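Re: [ENG-882] Designed sequences occasionally contain unexpected residues at chain ends

Forwarding the minimal case from QA. Structure tokens:
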């Protein structure tokens, strides 16, 4: 990894006009990691564009330093792109690769679409990969960068709850605090600014919870009608599947959401099931415990549920 870190840093040094890019429908890790590099590159005297194709961006991340600099317009000329937390090229939201590309990620399913691919599936967040990159190259991390990296770490570990959490994660978190991060501030920004529409949506969605496979699988549905009635927006659905997984016997939780282009499935597992296998089967990707896919052109919830039930039965076979 150290060699890749060096190679990437050399490439950055010799580039002048750099685009930082994170995956469409960005989460805390995608935006946090890309924003964390902004102060670093500005200090190096680079021209920097922070690009994300999604509009509007998730409001709950608006406290991240330099959030308002994120744009959905690519500059005319640039000589380097750096992607963050993006498992495949199509999720970058751009048509084609027009410059050298450094790919920072931690998704095991990453397709290595970059010219330099820095993929660490053992990292708890992409921001941890970026942090290791900075450490390895002796790059200073200021308060702004640290706040972005820390937020990415918190959101991708479910506030330090997932199996990815180990001594290295806590060491990084401690270092982030030394760099100026105020943990209580970040937590308040992330978790104490809830939307009423989201709570109203949760109430409706929870009514649809359906258990199967001896209680080891739970489904939850979000329809467009529910979204309209409650005034909820897409990001309001982000954590529903996590709370469904929290039901005592549940190993796999699946949220089915009716989107414009089909049904989006979000999968979570608790102890042993590798749900990324199922997401990949349907053209998506992710991690062992959190993965997702969109079934384009498919709008029949019960059909999708039956399909997934079979997949889950196979996946759970022999496991206990
Ligand atoms: Mn991530």
């Amino acid at each position: 990894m150290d060699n890749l870190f060096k190679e990437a840093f050399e490439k950055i040094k010799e580039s002048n006009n750099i685009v930082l890019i994170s995956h469409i429908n960005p989460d805390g890790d995608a935006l946090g990691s890309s924003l964390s590099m902004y102060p670093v590159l500005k200090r190096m005297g680079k021209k920097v564009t922070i690009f994300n194709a999604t509009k509007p961006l998730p409001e709950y991340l608006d406290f991240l330093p330099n959030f308002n600099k994120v744009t959905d317009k690519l500059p005319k000329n640039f000589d380097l792109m750096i992607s963050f937390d993006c498992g495949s090229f199509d999720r970058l939201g751009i048509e084609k690769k027009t410059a050298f590309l450094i790919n920072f990620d931690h998704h095991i399913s990453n397709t290595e679409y970059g010219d330099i691919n820095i993929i660490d599936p053992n990292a708890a967040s992409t921001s941890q990969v970026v942090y290791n990159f900075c450490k390895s190259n002796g790059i200073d991390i200021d308060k702004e960068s640290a706040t972005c990296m820390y937020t990415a770490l918190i959101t991708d570990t479910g506030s330090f709850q997932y199996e990815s959490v180990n001594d290295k994660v806590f060491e990084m978190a401690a270092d982030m605090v030394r760099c100026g991060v105020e943990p209580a501030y970040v937590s308040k920004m992330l978790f104490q600014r809830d939307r009423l529409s989201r709570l109203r949506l949760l109430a409706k969605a929870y009514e649809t919870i359906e258990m199967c496979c001896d209680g080891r699988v739970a489904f939850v549905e979000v329809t467009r009608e529910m979204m309209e009635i409650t005034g909820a927006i897409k990001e309001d659905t982000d954590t529903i599947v996590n709370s469904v997984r929290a039901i005592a016997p549940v190993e796999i939780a699946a949220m089915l959401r009716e989107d414009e282009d089909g049904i989006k499935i979000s999968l979570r597992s608790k102890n042993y099931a590798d749900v990324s296998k199922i997401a990949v089967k349907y053209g998506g990707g992710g991690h062992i415990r959190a993965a997702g896919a969109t079934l384009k052109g498919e709008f029949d919830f019960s059909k999708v549920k039956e399909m997934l039930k079979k997949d889950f039965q196979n996946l759970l076979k022999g496991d206990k």
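QA comment: On inspection the terminal residues look reasonable. The longest strand covers residues 262-269. Proposing we downgrade this to a documentation issue.
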